[in-house]
Amino acid sequence: MAAVKDAVLERAVDLAREVALEIAEEPEYVGEYLGAVREAERLVSHRFACTARGYRGWAWTVTVARVPRGRTATVCEAELLPGEDAILARTWVPWSERLRPGDIGPGDVLPFRPDDPRLEPGYTPTGDPEVDEVAIDELALARVRVLSPQGRDEAAERWYRGSRGPATPGAVASAAACWSCGFLVPLQGSLGQLFAVCANAWSPDDGKVVSLDHGCGAHSETDVEPVPSEWPASDPLFDETAIDVVERAPSTAPATGGPAAAEPAATDPAPTDPAPTDPEPAEPAPVPTDPAPTDPVPGEPAPSPTEPADELTTEVTDADARPSDGA
């Protein structure tokens, strides 16, 4: 049922403006009159445009009322309300639903949640040494609260479908799974049946929880197959700082001919310098054109190899003539 027109309340525009000016920070923030709205019987709201920056579409709203058969308007409430085309903030969401991974920074502390469904009460010592040793040492339940089945299931689902599960591009392209890698550190408890921790410094997942069927290119038991290259093989390079460069020794053959040039003396020592790795062939000694000297007479000194050939011939002839004269 629509509210009945109330002339007393609808004429209280000046009273409503005075109230709007009082609640506004600046008088100029109260704009033109937008009209009255009948809320109920003997209840009317007067609206004024808000000219403050950032409040487009908002209106100052002052609600007035009167008692039955009264002739005076009374202010009930005054506030700034959004209109149909107002810019509104998003619907408020509790922090537990707004929080996302990575939102917690250094120094941030989350409020305590006593009813967290991901946790359940831990183990309370019973006094029995054997039972308490299994629960505290082996199952690690010596805490106020531990993971509940819901908490473990959510963690497993999040890890398996995350960036370190089996469906990532790196895991699909890997040659082997993490379960056979030597750098894998297994977890304890039920989560260890599906997850472990990577301990390979070269892996992109170092120090992260990975699924056993995850994989990467840093697996301990795989290798890259050699691929033939299309580039030609380059010539070997020699480092002269690592090898000794030896100059080639000069040739020992004499430059001129003679009796000694054809057959070197046996007493000459061998050269001490190492022979070159690739010596050039020595030129043969020239054959002398002069006739070979005759054998010397016993008892006479051998001719010097440096004496000329004509002198050697003369001495040999005289020696041959001496025995004939004595005869």
Automatic annotation (TrEMBL):
Residues 250-327 are annotated as: Disordered. Residues 250-270 have a biased composition (Low complexity). Residues 271-306 have a biased composition (Pro residues). InterPro entries: DUF3027 (IPR021391). It holds the Pfam family DUF3027. This is DUF3027 domain-containing protein.
